[in-house]
Amino acid sequence: MLSIAVVEDNDDLRAAILNALRGEGHHVVGFDCAEALAEQGRTLRIDLVVVDLNLPGEDGISLARRLRATEPEIGIIMMTARTRTDDKRIGYESGADIYLAKPVSLEELAAAILALSRRLRPAPAAPTGLVVDTGRLTLGGPSGVTHLSASEAALLAAFARAQDHRLETWQIIEVLEQVDRALNRNALNVTVSRLSTKLRQSGTAPRPIRAIRNWGYQLCEPVRLT
C-alpha cells in the first residue's frame, strides 16, 4: 500500500481516480491545485504524486521540479494531453518517473503505480545464512527447512554464540550433557556428524563444521538464532 496524492483540477476525474486507487488498497488524498498540495500536504507522508500538467496557478511541470528537488525519492506520475516528443522530454527532465498521455484509463494508471511501487517499496531482501529456531527445533537455509533434534539445536545455538563460532570439545560436551546426561564421546561425534549432514541439506558448503585437531570444532557458516 502506498500513500498517494492526486493533483487534478477536474473534480469528476479526480474523484474517479481517488475511488479507483482506494479500491486498490492505497491511502489516497486529492488536491485541485499545486498550492493546495503545498499547504495541506506538508504534514502527510506521501510516497507518490499523480499530477496533471495543466493546473491553475503553479503548473504540473513546476510542481514536479519542486518535488523532485525537495523529495528526491518520491514517485511522480504525470498525466497530460501534451503528447509531443518535446513535451515528454520536458516532463521527464522535470522529474517524472512515468509520463501518461490523456485520456488515461484507470487500469493503465493502476498498472503504472504498481510498476513504480517496485522502486518505492522494494521487496525485502531474503535473509542470508542459516536461521535456527530453537523453540520449534528447525534449521532454515537456502535449500529449505530441516528439523533438528534437541541436541543439534542446542549445539548450533552454542556455535552461534561462541567467538568465531568455535567450541572446544569440553564445551560441546557440556552443551550436549544438558540435553542428554548419558552422553559419551561416540555420541558427540555422531551428533556433530548428523548436524553437518543437516547443514548441507539446508544449502551450506560441503564442510559446514570443521574439526580443529586436539581442540574442538568450528562452525563455518553464518547463523542467526530466533
UniProtKB/TrEMBL annotation:
GO terms for molecular function: phosphorelay response regulator activity; transcription cis-regulatory region binding. One of its GO terms (biological process) is regulation of DNA-templated transcription. The modification 4-aspartylphosphate is found at residue 52. One of its GO terms (cellular component) is protein-DNA complex. Keywords: DNA-binding, Phosphoprotein, Transcription, Transcription regulation, Two-component regulatory system. It holds the Pfam family Trans_reg_C. Residues 117-221 form the OmpR/PhoB-type domain. It comes from the Bacteria. This is DNA-binding response regulator.
